[in-house]
């Protein structure tokens, strides 16, 4: 749930991540749902109010003494299938909101609920549910759009997506999804080598949808053509795609070679080897790296059996796999853990990693005018981190998220 705050709120005595660097001696002031001011810290007219909270007698303003902790922009996750025992594709609007609360408790303040490939009627109902949750509010992370991961994918690279539900790109079907969502589809994963894909890519770009290559067997030339058609994103790099070969770079090689393409990384140490994550972060343009979770219903829950769209998965030892095939099927990752892992795997300073789960995803879906950085006029989406990079407080549009973690503790079926 979100705890409502009235009037203004001032964050002080912390290390603030502002304009790509760490700053001290500054206060961040929010009012209603926005950041309204960043100013030098002053100590006059303050009275101690206990437990690290301060109040000003000059303003109707609450104060948060960060006591040296870090204040960073809220995390943005572009690829989430569920969490907290809730599945986006087969769940209800209440399930979508439940997943939003789980991920908000781990620092995610904005997200794209992500559908699995499914029958058209199932996808349409999922869109209705997401839109309903979006309009009603979730009590957790803001829903800033929808990610359609399918159905226009290649069965050759299906991964955990159901191959029998995949179909060729058709503008009429995409139009139906766009209209049903009130044009809230922000990201579309597609295999560009499919017949009709290039035409749909161009059309979707005209409609303001970010196009991502994923679950694709495209060769290098086909990826290059997709980039020329407007593609700017790659879904979970190295997973569900033609791998790199020295004579045929495939999707993975093209993603590394084309600076126009932003790449999603699942930094759980399972989907991509840590040394390869280090290589990508070291060599790919920094602004073109986006950390995601690819989290599923089971995220935040105990080992057991769960749903991923219409398929059963099982969780054991921190891994999610299809019951039928034993293939990897999404992750148990949250973005706070992705942040810690990326720092550990890459050896890069924290200031290089934070934008990969804030500013960079915001830019990819065109919401960087209101989210992704700490700046006046932006939404007051803020995360307080301690020196272990653990989340201590989360604010979504100025309101503190208070998660009841017991709500997510039970799995549906134990192994």
Summarize it.
With 415 residues, this protein is an alpha/beta fold. The chain has helices at residues 93-104, 120-136, 171-180, 197-206, 220-229, 250-257, 274-283, 335-346, 350-353, 359-364, and strands spanning 2-3, 8-12, 15-18, 21-23, 26-31, 34-40, 46-48, 53-56, 61-65, 70-73, 75-80, 82-83, 86-87, 108-115, 142-143, 146-149, 185-190, 210-213, 233-234, 262-266, 289-292, 304-308, 311-316, 319-322, 382-385, 391-396, 399-401.
- Low-confidence stretches at least 5 residues in length (pLDDT < 50)? 44-58, 411-415
What is Rg? 21 Å
Shape: globular
Architecture of the largest domain, CATH level 2? Alpha-Beta Barrel
CATH-assigned fold name of the largest domain: TIM Barrel
- Count of runs of 4 or more consecutive helical residues: 10
CATH class of the largest domain: Alpha Beta
The total count of strands amounts to 27
Average pLDDT taken over every residue: 93
Straight-line distance between termini: 31 Å
Largest sheet: 9 strands, parallel
**CATH superfamily descriptor of the largest domain:** Metal-dependent hydrolases
Number of domains: 2
Estimate percent helicity: 10-25%
β-strand amount: 25-35%
Class by SSE composition: alpha/beta
């Amino acid at each position: 749930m979100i705890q409502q705050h009235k009037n203004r709120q001032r964050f002080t005595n912390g290390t603030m991540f502002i304009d790509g660097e760490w700053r001290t001696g500054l206060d961040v002031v929010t009012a209603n749902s926005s950041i309204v001011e960043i100013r030098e810290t002053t100590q006059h007219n303050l009275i101690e109010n206990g437990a690290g909270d301060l109040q000003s007698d000059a303003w109707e303003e609450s104060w948060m003494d960060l006591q040296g902790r870090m204040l960073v922009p809220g995390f943005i996750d572009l690829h989430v299938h569920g969490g907290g025992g809730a599945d986006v594709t087969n769940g209800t609007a209440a399930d979508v909101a439940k997943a939003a609360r789980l991920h908000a408790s781990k620092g995610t303040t904005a997200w794209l609920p992500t559908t699995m490939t499914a029958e058209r009627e199932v996808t349409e109902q999922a869109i209705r549910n997401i839109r309903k949750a979006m309009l009603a509010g979730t009590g957790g992370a803001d829903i800033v759009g929808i990610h359609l991961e399918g159905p226009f994918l290649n069965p050759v690279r299906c991964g955990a997506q159901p191959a029998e539900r995949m179909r060729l790109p058709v503008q009429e079907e995409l139009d139906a999804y766009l209209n049903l969502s009130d044009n809230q589809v922000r990201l579309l994963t597609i295999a560009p080598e499919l017949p009709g894909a290039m035409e749909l890519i161009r059309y979707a770009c005209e409609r303001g949808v970010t196009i991502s290559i994923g679950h694709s067997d495209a060769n290098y030339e086909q990826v290059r053509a997709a980039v020329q058609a407007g593609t700017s994103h790659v879904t979970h790099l190295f997973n569900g795609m033609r791998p790199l070969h020295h004579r045929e770079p495939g999707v993975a090689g093209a993603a590394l070679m084309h600076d126009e393409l932003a790449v999603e990384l699942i930094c759980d140490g399972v989907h991509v080897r840590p040394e390869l994550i280090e290589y990508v972060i070291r060599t790919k343009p920094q602004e073109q790296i986006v950390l995601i979770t690819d989290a599923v219903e089971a995220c935040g829950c105990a080992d057991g059996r769960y749903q991923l769209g219409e398929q059963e998965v099982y969780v054991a030892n921190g891994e999610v796999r299809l019951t039928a095939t034993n293939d990897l099927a999404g992750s148990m990752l949250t973005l706070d853990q992705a942040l810690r892992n990326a720092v550990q795997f890459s050896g890069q300073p924290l200031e290089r990693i934070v934008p990969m789960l804030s500013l960079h995803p915001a830019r990819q879906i065109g919401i960087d005018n209101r989210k992704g950085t700490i700046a006046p006029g932006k939404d007051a989406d803020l995360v307080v981190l301690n020196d272990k990079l653990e989340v201590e407080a989360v604010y979504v549009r100025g309101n503190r998220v208070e998660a009841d973690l017991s709500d997510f503790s039970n799995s549906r079926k134990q192994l």
